[in-house]
Amino acid sequence: MPRIESVDLNLLAPLHALLEERHVSRAAARLHTTQPSMSRALQRLRATLGDELLVRGPGGYQLTPRAERIQAELLHALPRLEHVFSGETFDPATAARTFRLAGTDYTVSVLSGALLGRVFEQSPGSTVLFSRWHHAVFADAEHGMVDLLIHGGTPPPPLRSHVLFEEGYSCLISSHHPLAQCSAMSLEDYLDCAHIVIDVMDGRQGHVDRRLESLGRPRRASVTLPYHAAAASAVPGTSLVATLPTKFAIQHAAPGITTVIPAPEEIGPMSYAMSWHPRLDDDVAHRWLRDTIISTLNTS
User: Fold this and answer.
1) Are residues 79 and 133 in the same domain?
2) Is there a single domain that holds both residue 173 and residue 244?
3) 46 in the same domain as 31
4) Taking a C-beta distance cutoff of 8 angstroms, is the pair 122, 97 a contact?
5) Is 0.85 topped by the overall pTM?
6) Fewest CB atoms less than 10 Å from the CB: which of 66, 106, 140, 216?
7) How high is the pLDDT of residue 78?
8) For 96-112, what is each residue's pLDDT tens digit?
9) 170 near 244, Cβ under 8 Å?
10) 253: number of CA atoms within 13 Å, CB side?
């Protein structure tokens, strides 16, 4: 069997035309070439394949058994080859793509409902897999294990990113907490409290702890939990403070049980982004997903 690098792929089109037309002149006309040129192509094909391919019979040329088998194989192979060399397309309505995303429980909660509704409305055959956030998640994206990350802050190179939205922070505390009646929490009062730290990565809560450490005023973690929702559930009946994205804190506040107070202004807001590896820049399905996320957030 000849190796692909030893085969002249320019013979593929003449082969297909000859087997379809079963006539040298008609095959030449089909490819807009001359009859002598097509005859030479047939001779080369016979030498390469070790078969006559076309033989004279009653009423004209007939295919040899080998040529019939080749014709059947080309019926399936040629459309695939044409797809390889054509511009890539993505039709959401007929696609069956699996999209692998990763994010914290907060970012997943922001996106999942509205995004999934839009994805499955437009691409019912596709699948969305959300995986948990962990310390090596950026490496997962770099190594092709995750398609898209939804997160706060800036990703490390070589990942690309697009800022999606900005969110401030608030403190969720028990309604019986000494600071429950305050309109805002000062940094001094904040640092005097017992804190729930959400372990986003490496035991720290990303933006919140980076900001405090940059001020030389780190907080003490009384409790460390892996999820934002778990932190909100741990607050009632305690003196603990959970520092949460404001919308999330409001959604998880229980009237008469927990209270939401703006976090110290020194903490500031956080920018949330989606990030991906550059190899997916021009992937049409991935680009569709990115555009869908942006449009979902813009209309929600």
Assistant:
1) no
2) yes
3) yes
4) no
5) no
6) 216
7) 84
8) 999 999 999 999 999 88
9) yes
10) 22
- Compute the distance between CA of residue 176 and CA of residue 260 in angstroms, rounded to an integer: 12
CATH number for 231: 3.40.190.10
Residue 144: both structure tokens together: 């092709």
Contact 239, 193 (CB under 8 A): yes
For residue range 250-285, what is the model confidence (pLDDT) as tens digits?
999 999 999 999 999 999 999 999 999 999 998 999
Pair (78, 225) in one structural domain = no
Give the pLDDT band (50/70/90) at residue 137: very high
Report the distance separating Cα 109 and Cα 88, nearest Å.
32
Which residue, of 85, 109, 132, is where some domain finishes?
85
Whether the upstream peptide bond of residue 14 has omega within 30° of 0, thus cis, is no
Q: How far apart are CA 141 and CA 159, in angstroms?
A: 8
Any domain includes 125: yes
Do 107 and 248 fall into the same domain? no
Judgement on whether residues 260 and 175 belong to the same structural domain of the protein: yes
Residues for the chain: how many in total?
A: 300
Nearest residue to 106 via CA among 246, 241, 204: 246
Q: Looking at the structure, tell me whether residues 176 and 264 fall in a common domain.
A: yes
Domain span at 26: 4-85
Cβ neighbors of 97 (< 8 A, separation 6 or more) are 90, 123, 126, 127, 285
- Domain final position from 85, 120, 152: 85
